[in-house]
Amino acid sequence: MSLVVTGWMRASALAWLLCALFAVQAQAAEDGITDHDILIGMSAPFKGTSADLGRELYRGAMACFLDVNANGGVHGRMIHVRAYDDGYQPQRTVTNTLQLLQTDHAFLLFGYVGTDAVERTLPILQKLQSTLLFFPLTGAEVQRRPPYDALAFNLRASYRQETAGLVDHLVAVGHKRIAIFYQADAYGRSGWAGIQDALAKHELPIVGEATYARGARYSDAFDRQVTILAAAHPDVIIAIGAHAATAGFIRAARRAGLNVLIANISFNSGSSMLALLKASSTEDGRDYTQALINTAVVPAINHVELRAVREYRALIDRYNPQPPFELAVSGEPTERYSAIGLEGFLDARLLVEILQRLGEHPTRAGLAAAAAGIHGLDLGAGFTTSFTQGRNQASDRIYYNATVGGQFQMIDDWGQFAVHGAK
User: Fold this and answer.
1) N or C: which end of the chain has fewer CB within 10 A?
2) 291 within 8 A of 259, measured Cβ to Cβ
């Protein structure tokens, strides 16, 4: 029996072959990836009272990405960041995330700002099972513990590590009465829990606490919080807040004669806080910048002996990247370089390394393995970065800085803060 192949059969076979080919190509296509581009999604506050965080994180990251693109990109692909403003409002973060994943089809998410923003984003990533979040600006536990720890990679140390280090150093030099001023949201509660746990190890309580509402401005009144905390007679107040509110509280505390040591953690942009306090110091004829401590997760921007600091400063000068939205905060003092900007730069450097390790045919499915393969990577910041099995945090490094002459300098002797001669 012979088989006669008709023209109709040939056409049908060709049509089937073309459909199969298109189907394979469709399956091979990866969201956010073309032959020439990689699309990264970002949601952050570019307007409002916390705009300094989104602005500086973006500028630092873009200084790196623009330089990578100028030198040929990653395996020939240019990095593009699609950034949306969320105004530090978590519900807007949700809207932005859905836009980035379902409409813009970003390859990955990067540089989200704030605990509440990340807390709202992770369930979306879990449900969609599409991609991962890299290097959010938060030290909270939500993305470090099940069920969401596999969905996010962190560069920075955690808030619990920052607060534990602060408490240990302060208690070691005689401080026993520690109070807390914190933002009334998931970020503030995360810091509160870290301080409580750290004090419990020393068998000490939080002696007083006062909260403020997210979005508070420098111009707002903080007299109520000052009165509450002054009544607790603290040795130290640890603030878990954003820079504008914390600066407003510090100014109110000093005006009321509450001159105790006030310590802050890294989410509070120290340079932005000091800029506000310096302006008020000049206006009022008194110094509001004394007796302040800030933790940091990156080295100080004046440590130019470090390669990463030199590169960050040079590339900021070369490209002068601008935030994607006109800032709603007008007249607020800004500085060319910042710790948040350096953090964004290091975040971007680490992300580029991960993208390089994905190879010439990057897939979302390969992101976790590419990141997990990083061990002992030197970004030039004075510490190495590593991811380990089940722990998606690359650095545990914490720096402690105190104000000297209106500037933050690294603390080399905690004895200067000793209480009643304690050593």
Assistant:
1) N
2) yes
